[in-house]
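Chapter summary example: a protein plus zinc ion.
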Amino acid sequence: MIEATVSAAPQPILRADYRGPSFFIDRVDLRFELGEDLSRVHATLSLRRADGVPDDAPLVLDGEALKLLHLALDGRTLGADDYALTATTLTIPGRGLAAAFELRSVVEIRPQDNTELSGLYRSSGNFCTQCEAEGFRRITYFLDRPDVMARYSVTLEAERARYPVLLANGNRVAAGELADGRHFARWDDPFPKPSYLFALVAGDLRCLPGEFTTRSGRAVRLEIWVEPENIDRCEHALRSLIKSMRWDEQAFGREYDLDIYMIVAVNDFNMGAMENKGLNIFNAKYVLARPDTATDDDYQAIEQVIAHEYFHNWSGNRVTCRDWFQLTLKEGLTVLRDRLFSRDMRSAAVARISEVLGLRTAQFAEDRGPMAHPIRPESYIEMNNFYTTTVYEKGAEVIGMLRLLLGPDGFRRGMDLYFDRHDGQAVTCDDFLAAMADASGRDLAQFSRWYSQVGTPIVRARGEHDPDARTFTLTLEQAPPHGRHDAALLHIPIAVGLLAPAADGARALPLQLADEPAPGATTRVLELRAANQRFTFVGVDAPPAASLLRGFSAPVELEVPRSDDELALLMASDPDPFSRWDAGQELGRRALLRLADDAAAGRPLALDPRFVAACARVLADPHLDGSLKALALTLPGERILGQHQEVVAVDELHTARQFAVRALAEALREPLQALYAATAPGPYSIEPAEVDRRRLRNLALGYLVALGEPQTVALAQAQFAAADNMSDAQEALACLIDHGGPARDAALAAFHGRWCGDPLVLDKWFALQAMSSHADTLARVLELATHPDFNLGNPNRARALLGTFGARNQFHFHSRCGRGYALLADKVIELDPHNASMAARLVAAFNPWRRFDAARQQAMRAQLERIAGQPGLSRAVHEIVARALAPV
Ligand code: BES
Ligand code: ZN
């Protein structure tokens, strides 16, 4: 017998290898005996062989961490010789199988030991599930793939005293008492679904009920389920759900389809939330809100996540993915839908700017690192590693481009056809594109390359004014992403406008291309399809300022040779709010990168006075709302700045940004002080105008405290002490943490004392310290990692400290001493055996390692190699680390 001495490297799964299933499962009957020590799952599956599959093809079921107690085929108990078990499969040879048959199994599982939080597990004493992507196989033997869709009937049995509430997908059809203080409930889901949408919950929970009447007049019962002490934090979630249901009817004509919709909040959850049919399970962070515990951003995030999971009922559940390579089919589309919703609920411009900030900070970086992949990946080792910003955010951008190209009505017709054609099916991204093409009559062949191309394309623009001909010619050129040469030409929508400088700023020109009879609107979507294209606008008297990529019409990097003066003009008067903000960011970026160069060369630092003047104008502009002003006056972050350098100059960027913040604060001291004094809070409300006011006032506070003067620090102390809401309290605390000293220590102690029993608020206490720019942050993070309240096993707590530190504190994480790296690697190694997918998310902080200087590269590489050398490393962490270390 040959014994394996080394475990083989995990093999990737390829998109090209997709084969349909050999068997389908039409019906599933599950019975759960839930217990403190052991739980048992009884499953009855109605299977049938797929058409054209040979009679001798075996049945191979997925199963992981299951103890098989019993197996019967059409009523006949199978013996050990009748099947074969491995750590991940159960195989029954094909010769014994009829065309259709019934398979019963009983397995034993231990939810209390399930630290991966995938499958059936326990959180705060309750039972809950998470099955996407491949967690159902940890509950019972099954064909755990999304193209196998079945009707489920589920019975839960548990002790009544500990688990009075028993929930599963669909409608509750029976309930009652059992012997020994146990009870049961039976649930029936009439819609066939893939196993990843299965869910159950058992526990001691309270519910906030609600009602929604669909536009066809059906009454739907709504239930938000939480731990008893949180029942006063559910109203916002319920309101958000009702808004989402109404909006999907109005915007997409989509109605809810069951009699009940439940949301359950749990404290231990790897992700944000999950769209299980009729029974969403949420990270408590995206449900619970009360003014004193949740910030304005939390309120918005809750509204958006609730909407997202609700929208999946159509884009994901009714029409699902054929295989996991198609993930962006449901996620990219649903992110676009939740963004359209959010833009309708509040300032569309603010929402769009936040979307783009996120894309540029995280997705552009992913595109330039070892995890770069198309929105429809070609291969994966661990599917959990591909719930990425590329699949989600870039995926949403791609569908957003389609909407721009087809127009809102054309897009809506495409969506209607897609839902109509594929309701109840598991389909592909190509099916989606075909519906869009068929409904609009447009050829999307070139556009479809967005699904297979890797990296962020570069678009270069050049403008030339001809005073004699009174024309302005815009030349657009598409170039392959950084470091890639294999890119095919894409179909890229570029929204443009032209501004004529005028006495009071600028005037938007009605646009007329050379072959058009008359001028039209002031914004135009140009379609770039060739490597190089020229667009000639006529009737342009003087050299205009070109406003390009309005609304961020495509996920590209735009390079335009233009002067700071032109940017300042756009920043002051571009009617497109996104482009206006973007011009300011580019101007700020240029100023900060020059400062970083000066810092590197030991030259004295001085912030460009033109930039300061532009900021002063924004601050004084009576037409801008507070949130837009706050965004415009927030300097580009160090991570984004680093993306514009050959080698990220960690220390110089930090010096430059810190310097610029103080310089701006000094220059704008008076208006900032006046603004702070004039916008004192009244009674708390989450109305948009109040959110705007808080955002701007807290921005002012940040600048003032950065001056580090006793009177300005006192403002933060006073705000912290008086705040009746978490937004104001958190912002004041963040300022005090950055300032340091006894003011910080007192505020941190007070905050901890008040909130130590509240896990979501305590997460903020960890995250704010991990984010801080203060010089001693690294030492404090090292200490916090041993704090009694730190708990690596709780994903929210681990993310609050380590996720924040690795992803949102470039300066301190990349501290030259390397202790930040060592801490992160230690924690990845510690967590990997318990929760591999969380460990893999944390280790991704090392992904950009090749973008740094030689010493830092070496230090990060050493940690990556140390992790790679761990015996028994999970597939998930192995995949990330191996990709990071692979030669470029
Ligand atoms: N289907 C996902 C949740 C999920 C992802 C489960 C990966 C298992 C593995 C859900 O719809 C989702 O996308 N949630 C996001 C939040 C959303 C608003 C983008 C999340 O959990 O981060
Ligand atoms: Zn989703």
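Key point: The first helix runs from residue 235 to 252.
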